[in-house]
Fold this sequence. Notes:
- The relative contact order is 0.17.
- The two termini are about 25 Å apart.
- This protein has eight helices and 13 strands.
- Helix 7 (about 220-235) links the parallel strand 10 and strand 11.
- The protein is α+β, with helices and mostly antiparallel strands.
- Bound molecules: coenzyme A.
- Coenzyme A (COA) binds near residues 2, 29, 79, 84 and 85.
- Keywords: Acyltransferase, Transferase.
Amino acid sequence: MKPADPSVPPVRRLGLADVPHCLDLAQDRSWPREERKWRLLLENGEGFGIDAPDGRGLAGTAVLTRYGTTAAAVGMMLVASRYGGRGLGRRLLEHVLAEAGDATVFLCATEYGRPLYEKLGFETVGVVEARVGRFHAGDGPYGEADPGRNATRLAEPGRDLAALCALDVKVFGADRSRLLARLFAFAEQVRVAERDGEITGYGAAWRSGDRLFVGPVVAEDDATVRTLVTGLARGADVRIRLDLHRRHEELVSWFDGHGLARSSTTSFMVHGGRPLPGDRSRLVASFMSALG
Ligand SMILES: CC(C)(COP(=O)(O)OP(=O)(O)OC[C@H]1O[C@@H](n2cnc3c(N)ncnc32)[C@H](O)[C@@H]1OP(=O)(O)O)[C@@H](O)C(=O)NCCC(=O)NCCS
């Protein structure tokens, strides 16, 4: 571990005024310029950054998203390529971990980030596959035409938010209600699956850049996943991306067969290897990787 470089400014909180610099930093690391995503993350969570000593925007960023007091996700860990390998990533991550306090902290790590996370005590507990492509609904029975047991419908915040949050907290194991309330404005579509008047799953589709992201997806079984994803992705005029938690082996071939091929994988890591709360077997797709 190198001593802190005194020429590098301290970590500071980021606000919405920093979004243009966040986009420049993302671009520097060949990440897309996703303004809507940064805005959601900075409005809902806490962004931290280090100003570039050369005065050219930000040298590094990280976003902490708290789920109640018990869990938190780290995302958007970025250090400008010209400042890489100088301890900024470590400094940002240590800062964010200190801010998170006693919460169980998790993240999705790229191969570039994993060595840093391992050094700071994160352990890999799962794999997330980015599934990308044009969705082919096929002629299967999973669309809205199916009035059967797995029918889905558009969710309405007034009618569904409370039940959706009640299901989500059992699965995610921590309180995402603040984020889920925002989901209705952020997403193009939120759908719920219902059986006997009870919500058994939900999913959302939202746009960023030239893609339609499908996530989060929470569902009690594979049939419900297929119905929700078909309802969300059918007819999309752009490529879809869905971040699938790989424990759902049976779904992999279904996604392959419907045009959503594996494009990359990330490691799902938990600080200190702590057990994750909730019933993650029903958490099929992340909202986005930065949100854990
Ligand atoms: C990942 C990233 C944030 C690391 O930032 P950084 O400022 O270069 O990292 P640091 O210099 O603070 O390195 C921290 C430690 O991790 C180690 N480390 C970092 N990258 C490493 C690598 N690729 N291989 C091995 N060790 C590595 C360093 O040796 C250092 O160890 P030390 O503190 O014991 O000396 C930066 O490379 C980046 O922005 N990458 C592109 C975007 C990305 O993939 N982000 C991660 C998203 S999950």
